[in-house]
Amino acid sequence: MKRPYIFLELCGILLLLNLAAEARPPNLLIIIADDLGYGDLGCYGATEIKTPHMDALAKAGQVFTAAYAPASTCTPSRYSLLTGDYPWRQTARTNSILAGDAPLAFVPGQFTLARQLKVAGFRTGIVGKWHLGLGDGTTPLDFNGEIKPGPLEMGFDYCHIIPATVDRVPSVWIENHRVVNLDPADPLKVSYEENFADEPTGLEQPDLLRYGADKQHSGSIHNGISRIGYQSGGKAARLIDEELPDTVVAKAAAFIVENKERPFYLNVGLFEPHVPRTVKPEFEGASGSGLRGDTIQQADWQIGQILKVLDEQGLTGETIVILTSDNGPVLYDGYQDRAIEELNGHRPAGPWSGWKYLVKEGGCRVPFVLRWPGNAKPGTRTEMICLTDIVATMAALTGSGLPPGVAVDSMNQLPVILGTTQNPVRTSVVLQGVSGAMAFRDHDWKLILRNGKKATAGIGAGADSKDNRFATGINPGDQLYNLAEDPGENRDRAREFPARVAEMRASLAKIQALK
After folding, report:
1. 18 Cβ partners below 8 Å, 6+ apart?
2. Which among 49, 87, 164, 420 is placed 20 to 30 Å from 191, CA to CA?
3. Hey, is 204 helix, strand or coil?
């Protein structure tokens, strides 16, 4: 796996030799929200939730209406964004939502977008959500010492991250290789198997919680919220949920300012609107759609603050900004925060059916806004694009090239972004859900494959059902939809067009055979 890295180094040396004679490549700022739905932004039709900064970004940029996360859950999609590969190509560590102490999802020396751009002369950083594992998996992860391998070993020069999701322990920030503010006299202990002595849990002491939670989310209590898993110690290092937005903004701003003299790639992983949902006092009740809506307006504020830094540093015209999400939305996701009751007519997935965890359009079709002043003409783009495509697009933009055998599912979207072609670059996409669910869109047709299991109760539940988390996309038979005629995926055409099903299965098999 180290050979592609050597190839990149050689390309990088040649590229750096010519940098002085060429124009500086644009910076890349990727802001990836967590569970943000297609319909959660004003520029995609939201009315109850106000997103003025996202909308301003959209007005100055390109709004893609057929953008896909390659999976309907976070870890697989984030893996694909960084590698340009569908997550199922490396199944050992990317087919599930990782625990907070899970090993690194990448193998040593593996190609990543960060490594590609670092070799091309970029300064690389990641702030916010990581959720791609830490450590090599050979020994239990010790959060009290050096924590590696991690982002720095995968091409990032700097990281200030939370290991997984905020609803999973440990509830700490990690900067580069160490937990922030950790007191050696109060070591941090983490377990996903059993609780530590004298540590309260949401299951045993629900009276300590600001809102209730299901059994999975009723582990260790911190800041009035129970989490998945158990933690003990590390009290001085533990995060405060309401302070997360300020930390994300501060660390992202500092990275931009410190690296303004050279090209940089910054990945900002927002935590909103993922559970547990909390907001700063000024965002309480700010939206017309309950606490979940408030968190989205809080995310919008963060985006505005980060974009303001670009303006202040004179970098707006030199920076490609991409705003997207790792998967579709979900309302009830383990916490009783009234996301359903206070929805107030808002449609998180917009016109699409389904939600997070499913391979319906609502689970994988995501907002995707790209701004590149003076290069990407503002407007609506109907061409298909996938998070995997960022790798090949940046390789084309920087002239850095891609090593053989990497990023096989990435397509160069530069002609679409620049408007130099009238034809779509991508005409198909493979989507991954939970419980082995998989779908394949080819032009306007979409095939949801049977996965050999019986349907379970609740499979037809709508996005405003409290059982929606557990409607896991188990499909007893192939389903075929024409999205041009039936965007809501309501009319299954599989029995009507068996030849189309067979043809699409054959096309998918060819994609799966790529190496």
Report:
1. none
2. 87
3. coil
For domain 3-186+234-418, the CATH superfamily is: Alkaline Phosphatase, subunit A (3.40.720.10)
Q: What is the pLDDT of residues 134-152, one digit of tens each?
A: 999 999 999 999 999 999 9
The confidence band for 108, taking pLDDT boundaries of 50, 70 and 90, is confident
| 276: preceding bond cis by omega (within 30 degrees) | yes
Residues 35-91 pLDDT 10s: 999 999 999 999 999 999 999 999 999 999 999 999 999 999 999 999 999 999 986
- Report long-range pairs for 176-182 (Cβ below 8 Å, ≥24 apart): 176/152, 177/146, 177/147, 177/148, 177/150, 177/152, 178/145, 178/146, 178/147, 179/143, 179/144, 179/147, 179/234, 179/237, 180/237, 181/236, 181/237, 182/143, 182/144, 182/234, 182/236, 182/237
Length of the chain counted residue by residue: 515
Q: Give bridge partners of residue 168 from the DSSP assignment.
A: 228
Both tokens of residue 466?
């409290």
Cβ-based neighbours of 282, under 8 Å, separated by 6 or more: none
Residue spans of the domains in the chain: they are 3-186+234-418, 189-232, 428-513
Tell me the pairing of strands 319-325 and 27-33.
parallel
Amino acid present at 264 = F
Half-sphere exposure (Cβ direction) of 382: Cα atoms closer than 13 Å: 5
Contact status, residue 234 vs residue 170, Cβ threshold 8 Å: yes
Would you say 15 and 407 are in contact if contact means Cβ atoms under 8 Å apart? no
What residue type is assigned to position 150 of the chain?
A: G
Quote the pLDDT of residue 451.
Answer: 85
Name the nearest CA neighbour of 60 among 384, 424, 397, 320: 320
Number of other CB atoms surrounding residue 506 within 10 Å: 9
Could you give the 3-state DSSP secondary structure of residue 319?
strand
CA 359 from centroid of its chain's CA atoms? 16
Angle between helical axes of 290-312 and 52-59 (0-180°, round to 10)? 50
The dihedral through the CA atoms of 175, 180, 184, 186 has a sign that is negative
